[in-house]
Design a protein that fits this description.
single chain, alpha/beta, 2 domains, globular
């Protein structure tokens, strides 16, 4: 099951997979708003079966501060809150046996401010990406503790040559030159395939941290109890209430 915003590109990818003998289902969805994330989670819950693996790979590296309809900073929603909203119906329905979060080594630079980070008042074209990726990594540690029957892993996939963080102007040109030396998406995909083939990623109730394919201790910032508590409390305050049961039954 493949999820993305662009239905045409999703359909093209499904066709390419089927031409090679595989099977895939396109599920259009958008994580740029919490309402969109709720709707996507409901669609996925209705089309998946117990034992599914969820791979979180959506991400935004913003170049300027923008707010969502909820008044929250866009990267904070896309990189953190919306994926949590989207996966909750799947967890509630016990559809998931494993969750992989494709995170970033830059969480080591994350600094969460409960009063500023959610609305981007501490916005930085570099630090905001680090902050929001840190938030989701910490949240997934809590998810693992709350759902010990679900195997959870958080990983830095490698330094990969993609359009993430693309910028206009001189900075963008310099970044594009630097990216030429980074590894290709195909190399990263092969690495993720090997990790997916592992029988188990983490002990029950825990989420382990991988740097590429090697398990590492969690970075110090991710072990800081004050930071973990601040992210936990802000997340609980900002997550929308679940839709009423009648809405769920109607789809």
């Amino acid at each position: 099951m493949l999820v993305a915003r662009d239905r045409a590109r999703l359909d093209a990818l499904v066709a390419a997979i089927e031409q090679k003998g595989g099977q895939a289902i396109a599920v259009p969805g958008d994580l740029s708003s919490l309402n969109g994330a709720q709707a996507l989670g409901q669609r996925l819950m209705e089309t998946t079966h117990p034992g599914a693996t969820l791979i979180h790979n959506a991400g935004l590296w913003p170049s300027k501060r923008e707010l969502t309809p909820e008044g929250l900073e866009t990267a904070f929603v896309i990189n953190h809150l919306a994926p949590l909203v989207m996966q909750q119906p799947l967890l509630d329905a016990k559809r998931l046996s494993r969750i992989m979060l494709v995170s970033a080594g830059l969480i080591v630079k994350g600094r969460f401010d409960a009063a500023k980070t959610p609305t981007g008042e501490d916005f930085s074209s570099i630090r905001t990406y680090c902050n929001t990726k840190l938030c989701f990594a910490l949240a997934m540690r809590d998810i693992a503790a709350a759902h010990p029957n679900t195997d959870v892993v958080v990983l830095h996939p490698g330094v990969v040559r993609t359009d993430l963080g693309a910028r206009p102007g001189l900075l963008g040109w310099l970044l594009s030159r630097v990216k030429r030396s980074w590894e290709s998406p195909e190399v990263c995909a092969a690495r993720l395939t090997r990790i997916l083939a592992r029988e188990r990623w983490s002990p029950p109730g825990e989420a382990r941290w991988l740097m590429e394919e090697q398990e590492q201790p969690w970075p110090a910032v991710a072990e800081n109890e004050a930071t973990r508590r601040a992210v936990r409390e802000a997340t609980a305050r900002l997550l929308p209430p679940p839709p009423p049961a009648s809405a769920l039954s109607q789809g």
